[in-house]
């Protein structure tokens, strides 16, 4: 099973969208194995978004991500990175498809509610920035046979 990091950004927290956003991932069948409410320090924000250093939006991104509380999640599931990014939607709210988180709740280019990692390598790096290994709760999901077809049989 893959893991990914999701950050529910300050605008979503201020708009009281935490529950609605988290429910999208739970309803899809992903396990939440890490969860915390925090204010990201400037140093941590700069580390996490170092890939954007030098771009015209970098300083505004750092200012935004440190402006208030965020909710940081680690999700586990089959193809969790790809599926999470589809659930999140396009970067800019006005371009995101209806039915995605950004498509349903965002309109701004700058305030786009949520961050999700884009690769296995990025996920592992970002998870280690926000969580100590002992703070991730690996547990058995008893409903996996209902989420993923684990029978090995073709039903159709």
TrEMBL record:
One GO BP annotation of this record: CTP biosynthetic process
GO molecular function per UniProt: ATP binding; metal ion binding; nucleoside diphosphate kinase activity
InterPro entries: NDK-like_dom, NDK-like_dom_sf, Nucleoside_diP_kinase
Active site: 115 (pros-phosphohistidine intermediate)
Obligatory cofactor(s): Mg(2+)
Matching Pfam families: NDK (PF00334)
Main subcellular localisation: cytoplasm
Entry superkingdom: Bacteria
UniProt catalytic activity: a ribonucleoside 5'-diphosphate + ATP = a ribonucleoside 5'-triphosphate + ADP; a 2'-deoxyribonucleoside 5'-diphosphate + ATP = a 2'-deoxyribonucleoside 5'-triphosphate + ADP
Keyword entries, A-Z: ATP-binding, Cytoplasm, Kinase, Magnesium, Metal-binding, Nucleotide metabolism, Nucleotide-binding, Phosphoprotein, Transferase
Binding site for ATP: 9, 57, 85, 91, 102, 112
Domain (Nucleoside diphosphate kinase-like) ranges: 1-138
GO CC, alphabetical: cytoplasm
UniProt subcellular location: Cytoplasm
EC number(s) recorded for this UniProt protein: 2.7.4.6
Keyword check for Ribonucleoprotein: no
PANTHER family: NUCLEOSIDE DIPHOSPHATE KINASE
HAMAP family for this protein: NDP_kinase
Its job: Major role in the synthesis of nucleoside triphosphates other than ATP. The ATP gamma phosphate is transferred to the NDP beta phosphate via a ping-pong mechanism, using a phosphorylated active-site intermediate.
Family as reported in the entry's similarity comment: Belongs to the NDK family.
Quaternary context: Homotetramer.
Protein name per Swiss-Prot or TrEMBL: Nucleoside diphosphate kinase
Organism name: Candidatus Scalindua rubra
Highest classification ranks of the organism: Bacteria, Pseudomonadati, Planctomycetota, Candidatus Brocadiia, Candidatus Brocadiales
